[in-house]
Amino acid sequence: MTAYPAGSSWHFRATCKLLPFVILVAACTHTNTSVAPGGDPMVVTEDQIDQLHVTNAYDIVVQTHGNFLHSRGRESQNPNVPAIPIHVYVDNAYYSNDVTSLRDIDAMDVMEIRFYQSYEAQYKFGSGHMGGVIQVITKN
Known about the structure:
By secondary structure, the protein is α+β, with helices and mostly antiparallel strands. It contains four helices and five strands. The protein has a five-stranded mixed sheet.
C-alpha cells in the first residue's frame, strides 16, 4: 500500500500512480521525428534528408516516421483478408500499394516526403486510401 500525504485528493493520488507510465511513454517516443521551427511534423524536408545519410526513400521513412510503414488494420476480422495497404505516390502520380517499393527511389532524387493519415489521404487522393499515403516529392 502506498502512503500519501494526509488529506491528499484523489487527483493527487491518481497523478502519483500514472506518473511512471507517463515517463515510460515519453521515453519511448521516436527521437528522429524532430521538426524544424514552423515546420510540419508530417513532412520530411530536403535538409532533413541530407542529414540522414541514407540511400533510398524507404530508409528515409524508417528513420523519420517508421510507424507509417505498418498497416492501419484490417477491414475484416477474417485473417485471410489482407491488411489495408498504405499507398505510395511519387509527386502526384500513383506509384504502388507496397511500401517496400520506396526502396526503388534514390534518396538523392527526393526533395521531400509527406505523410497523410487516412482521412487526409481520402480527401486529397480519393476513396480507397484508408491505409494512408506516403507521397514522395522528387527534385525533377
